Amino acid sequence: MNKKIMTPAVDELFDAILSLQSKEECYSFFEDLCTINELLSLSQRYEVASMLRDKKTYLEIAEKTGASTATISRVNRSLNYGNDGYELVFERLKGQS
């Protein structure tokens, strides 16, 4: 885990996110917190991660999501060498299906 991001302010933000109880509350909070482009970028990265996990090619991912190859590469690095955050969420969501 990157200790550079571990600050009291980030802790408070994560506590706020963890307090949200519905998708509607998430929409309200994140629309206030982020610009539309920031939120769309976050969702794009998540979609890219999901497609990489499903073994889609960079070309397929770029065509479907509009993500640049640089973004796809960065997400791929996170999947392969990151803190397994994506994997944690994918596994939890798979268990809810």
UniProtKB/TrEMBL annotation:
Gene3D superfamilies from the xrefs? TrpR-like
**Family matches, as SUPFAM superfamilies:** TrpR-like (SSF48295)
PANTHER family from the xrefs?
Answer: LMO1763 PROTEIN, TRPR-LIKE PROTEIN YERC_YECD
Q: NCBIfam families from the entry?
A: yecD_yerC (TIGR02531)
Protein name, entry field: YerC/YecD family TrpR-related protein
In its UniProt entry, the species of origin is given as: Suilimivivens aceti
